[in-house]
Structure formats: structure tokens, C-alpha cells
Sequence to fold (296 residues):
Amino acid sequence: MKVKKFTGAIPAMVTPFDEKKKVDEPALKSLIKFLVLGGVNAIVPCGSTGEAATLNLEEYELVVRITVAEVDGKIPVIAGAGSNDTAKAIHLSQLAKNAGADALLHVTPYYNKPTNDGLVAHFKAIAKSCDLPIIIYNVPGRTGLNMTAETTLRIAKEIPQVVGIKEASGNYPQMMEIIKEASGDFSILSGDDVFTLGLIAAGGHGCISVVANEVPREFSKLVAAALDGDFKKARDLHYKLFDLMNVNFIETNPIPVKTALFMMGKIKESFRLPLIAMSEKNKEVLRRVLANLKLI
Fold:
């Protein structure tokens, strides 16, 4: 299967909700336009930043369909379709394909904590059921399971449909082992904004990002500069955005980034339980960071 390598600045998009906790379609469409105009290289709806765990199947398909329609072929849509239930992950993958997604993002199964062989079997089953390219997602802080470099490389070798990884282990040696041993058409993407510059310097290809929701143009320029080898420009942009990258995790993601987008006038301040509104103390910290960047 011939696929295009996924590189660059790729926002893991939030899902706007209205006052009644329903998907806010006008705000979603407006946000997608903001991201595309900001020059991002792809977009990920329905990931953990998009509160996908609280979307029902109809809402899931709706968000993917709206994203595909608004993007209108300008950039790839990589639909989050992960689950700790392989059968559900397969179903979500098929819904995403039917909705027009170009690729899938699949997290390692959380809570179940499968063995290495179980991880391989999980991704093989998904690939067999749906012919879209797959980016696998390693985020031990959320799943309770670290997928080792050895397992990642095995999956990439045994499942050609797996074309990349979103690596959010925070383990630089592990990331570099993947970069060192992976084939040239395998994309290694940071899953943490603050590690993007270092990962690209080591040979990585970009980031599936939270901060790109708020500053798509600036983060896209950062990633593009790093990929072009202009590390002076990339460093300057990295440190310009550094405080925002960090404050986005002052509380559980996506609480801060959604609050920031509310302060910027782009979405409503609305979350679904078990996520709740940001504390007033942390809102003040966030507000100062946004003001320093002239975002509010």
C-alpha cells in the first residue's frame, strides 16, 4: 500500500461543546478553518485531546465528517479511533473510513495492559479490518503501558499499514532507538509539544500537538524550521511558545487548552464529565501566559 509520510505540525484538535454539552458544530467548523489557515500539515479529530472517550458513535462520526468536509482535501485527516476493546477499535476505524478520514490514530490498549504479542495482534486485527494507514500512539501516562522500541519496530515491520508512531513516552533514548532502526518511510512524531524540537533534531518528523490548537501558525513555523535544519529560528519559536506548551498541562489535558480557546473567543467553556472547568487559580496563570503572547 503506497502512502504519504505524515510529517509536520499536526494538531490533536479539541471538540467544542455548547452550553448543553452537545457538539458545537459552528465552533468546530470555525476552529478547523483557523487550524487550516494556520498552515498545519494534517489534523487529528477525536483523539484524547478531543475528549473522544465521551463521544457516542453518532457524535464520533459527525466530528470526523465535519472535519473532512471543512478540510476539503487540503490536508490529511487522521481520525483517532483507539480503544482498549479491539472490536470497538475496529468499528471506530470503519466509521472513520466511511466518514472520509485519510488515516487512523490508534492508541495502545489502556487498562487491559496487553503483552507485546497482544499489542501486535491488536494492531494486526485493526489493519486487517480497515485499509487506511495507521499511526500508533504510545502514551504510558494515560494507558499504564509503555510500548518499547523493540515492539514498535516489530509492529512497523510486520504490519506495513502502520506508517508511523506518535511517541509520548517522554523517553528520548527510546524515541531515538526507533528513529535509528525504522525504515525511511516510517514517521516518528512527538506526542509532547516540548519534545518536538529535540525529536526533530534527532531525526524525527514532527508532532501531533496540543499547542497547535492555540497557535497553529507559530507552531507550524517552528516545526517547518526544524525540519529545514534552521535550528536558530526553531529554537527562538520553541522558547517563545515554551510557557504555553507547559501551561497546557497545568491541569489534565484538554482542560487548559479548551479554556485558552475560550479566552481567545473561539469556543465555549464546556467540558464533559469527568472533566470539569479549570480552577480559578490556574486560570490566572493561563491568562498571563496568553496575554504575554498577545493571544488575548
User: Anything to note?
Assistant: Residues 79 and 159 are 19 Å apart (CA to CA). The domain at 8-249 is CATH 3.20.20.70 (TIM Barrel). The chain has one domain: 8-249. DSSP finds twelve helices and seven strands in the chain.
